[in-house]
Amino acid sequence: MIIIACIDGKKGMMFHGRRQSRDRVLREDMLRECAGKKLWMSPYSYALFENHADTGILASEDFLAAAGREDYCFVENADALADYLEKVQAVLLYRWNRTYPADVYFPFDLADGSWELKTREEFKGSSHERITREWYEKAGRSL
Questions:
Q1: Under CATH, domain 2-138 is a member of which superfamily?
Q2: What is the tens place of the pLDDT at every residue in 101-128?
Q3: Where exactly are the structural domains of the chain?
Q4: Burial, 44: exposed, middle or buried (Cβ in 10 Å; 0-12, 13-18, 19+)?
């Protein structure tokens, strides 16, 4: 599976059960990336995409278990993500380039040598002056 996550400067993802941002431009970028593929997410995350119901988004409480090898999974709450590390082939990471209060953090160490950064680019979001988009693949594997 391909994980999509949004993190702040300290890998924070959520605070008190709430997402850190709802950037519209980032969501549009994510939908372009996933066009023609399955995009899984929790019902909580799906609320961000209700206006895009025709794009093939699938919402389920157990979306990480349901996702196939080449499916995308948008993850906002990383609690169960570590249990699926072996299933993850790639990570699309959006960095907010600022730090927010957080109590849920992205669980993977993408700098531990088992991941390769393939691309990095920056763009202006609707609520963030600068968002960094990074694509990582497991070292030695290519999608």
A1: Dihydrofolate Reductase, subunit A (3.40.430.10)
A2: 999 999 999 999 999 999 999 999 999 8
A3: 2-138
A4: middle
